[in-house]
Amino acid sequence: xxxxxxxGVIGCGDIAATRHIPALSACxxxxxxxxxxxxxxxxxxxxxxxxxxxxxxxxRELLQNESLDAVVICTPPWVTPHLTMESLQAxxxxxxxxxxxxxxxxxxxxxxxxxxxxxxVQVGFTYRHGPLLETLRExxxxxxxxxxxxxxxxxFDESWDPTGNPxxxxxxYRTMQHGSPSIHDGAHVADFLQFLAESPVTAVESFxxxxxxxxxxxxxxxxxxxxENGDIAKVEIGWxxxxxxxxxxxxxxxxxxxxxxxxxxxxQLKTGEITETVKLExxxxxxxxxxxxxxxxxxxxxxxxxxxxxxxxxxxxxxxKAIEKSLRER
Length: 330
Known about the structure:
By secondary structure, this protein is an alpha/beta fold. It folds into two domains: 5-127 and 287-308, Rossmann fold, CATH 3.40.50.720; 128-281 and 317-328, Dihydrodipicolinate Reductase, domain 2, CATH 3.30.360.10. The protein is built from ten helices and 14 strands. It has helices at 14-26, 40-50, 59-63, 80-89, 104-117, 131-141, 166-176, 181-197, 284-302, 310-328, and strands spanning 5-10, 30-36, 54-56, 70-73, 93-97, 121-124, 150-156, 201-209, 220-227, 232-238, 249-253, 256-261, 266-271, 275-279. The protein is globular. InterPro entries: Gfo/Idh/MocA-like_OxRdtase_N (IPR000683), Gfo/Idh/MocA_Oxidoreductases (IPR051450), GFO_IDH_MocA-like_dom (IPR055170), NAD(P)-bd_dom_sf (IPR036291).
């Protein structure tokens, strides 16, 4: 299959408009053929901006289009698995945003549907792609940090500003009604840990607080995660605070420390003997979205499994659900 793949997008919110659609539009191997959003005006505006021939508010209209090879699904995670399954049944490959579901049972139904239809699912753990995470993993595999390792990760996002940005406040509040930030941003963290530690989780202990009583769930979670190989992770995830710390991504071992600075776009290894730095000159996020799309296209064309696929999506979800369970038990 050498001709361009025809791809549609379901859900034209912020992540689609700022990341997925620009990546699709810039890719010479893709024809961006259709956009769908419940807000038809939003879909039409983006269709006009990117010269997309079809804009609709009915996703079924998009799925019934036999000329489409695949869809990118950018909807809330309580909606995503059902659209993913319908898309597979309609004969479309799927790149879906993370998390792929909000419970493991539903995610497993997606896996069953993928197997039954023969079409592929790639889960949008976008930020695992590219040389920075791959360099970190290679340093770990080469034993440059020694073992056991301590992973220190912090993600702080979604500023609390109900007056200045009420649309954002309402959207994130609705998201929190379906689970704490550990289910949502925690999906990326869980995937990072799967990708780097490559060891089963043996124990999870989590603590959470609501900084305002009206929040539907905790908005700051702290988790300690133990792995079978002896590694340990400390994970902080916070939403809906007016100001945030920078967050951290560090891996500490008996031989040294590795640092991933997502803002200045570099990874650095420091041991007693050396300091080694790999810096990304292009925009990290845009690069990750471009590489992710390239891997999705390659999987379709070569009929090989998507990575990360449904198994990785279920693994990440299982870890975030373990965090959620520990939070409930406090």
